[in-house]
């Protein structure tokens, strides 16, 4: 039964990822709200340290925004040049034109959210069952909104990944804390009963 449950969990992860990929490939264009982050990722990848060339120096926009989300998504491109040979990087550069890099960045963002959702689903494993995790993922990702927006570089998606990861960690911390409190309580009861037995003797 455990093998079937874990297989259904991984198959639901695969199906959820496939749904995200279908939405990513069928609707690749930007909404207005995500254009800031896409442009920031483009500037970080292509202009790197040349901040004067960043589009946001000329068109800063009415609302101050952060570059943390785009910087996090652009990190692989910043660390690849010292590791990978130059000829390989040129080949990757030819494959990843400006249009294709959007697909890669959005796929990474969708995988990060899917990973966070999988972790959140697995946090329920101790209290419920592993089958709940797979049903949780399937119900969540077969609905339109999360599957579609999981690959969109909106500030809310960056925040959602962070919040879900913290909720998972908080649940794991709470479970550990509950186990420690139960162990402490059992030791106290053991010591109290031992003291009671010693006082009777």
From TrEMBL:
GO terms for cellular component: endoplasmic reticulum membrane. Pathway: Protein modification; protein glycosylation. It comes from Echinococcus granulosus. It is a multi-pass membrane protein. The keyword Membrane applies. Mannosyltransferase that operates in the biosynthetic pathway of dolichol-linked oligosaccharides, the glycan precursors employed in protein asparagine (N)-glycosylation. The assembly of dolichol-linked oligosaccharides begins on the cytosolic side of the endoplasmic reticulum membrane and finishes in its lumen. The sequential addition of sugars to dolichol pyrophosphate produces dolichol-linked oligosaccharides containing fourteen sugars, including two GlcNAcs, nine mannoses and three glucoses. It holds the Pfam family Glyco_transf_22. The keyword Disulfide bond does not apply. This is Mannosyltransferase. Keywords: Endoplasmic reticulum, Glycosyltransferase, Membrane, Transferase, Transmembrane, Transmembrane helix. One of its GO terms (molecular function) is dol-P-Man:Man(7)GlcNAc(2)-PP-Dol alpha-1,6-mannosyltransferase activity.
């Amino acid at each position: 039964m455990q093998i079937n449950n874990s297989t259904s969990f991984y198959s639901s992860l695969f199906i959820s990822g496939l749904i995200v990929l279908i939405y990513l490939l069928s609707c690749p264009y930007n909404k207005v709200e995500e254009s800031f982050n896409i442009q920031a990722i483009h500037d970080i990848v292509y202009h790197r340290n040349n901040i004067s060339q960043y589009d946001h120096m000329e068109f800063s926009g009415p609302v101050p925004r952060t570059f943390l989300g785009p910087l996090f998504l652009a990190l692989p491109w910043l660390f690849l040049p010292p590791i990978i040979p130059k000829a390989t990087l040129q080949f990757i550069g030819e494959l990843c034109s400006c249009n294709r890099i959007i697909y890669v960045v959005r796929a990474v963002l969708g995988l990060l959210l899917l990973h966070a959702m999988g972790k959140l689903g697995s946090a329920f494993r101790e209290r419920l069952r592993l089958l709940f995790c797979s049903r949780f993922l399937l119900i969540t990702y077969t609905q339109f909104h999360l599957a579609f927006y999981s690959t969109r570089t909106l500030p809310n998606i960056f925040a959602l990944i962070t919040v879900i990861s913290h909720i998972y960690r908080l649940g794991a911390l709470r479970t550990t804390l509950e186990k420690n409190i139960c162990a402490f309580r059992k030791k106290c009861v053991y010591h109290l009963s031992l003291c009671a037995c010693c006082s009777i003797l």
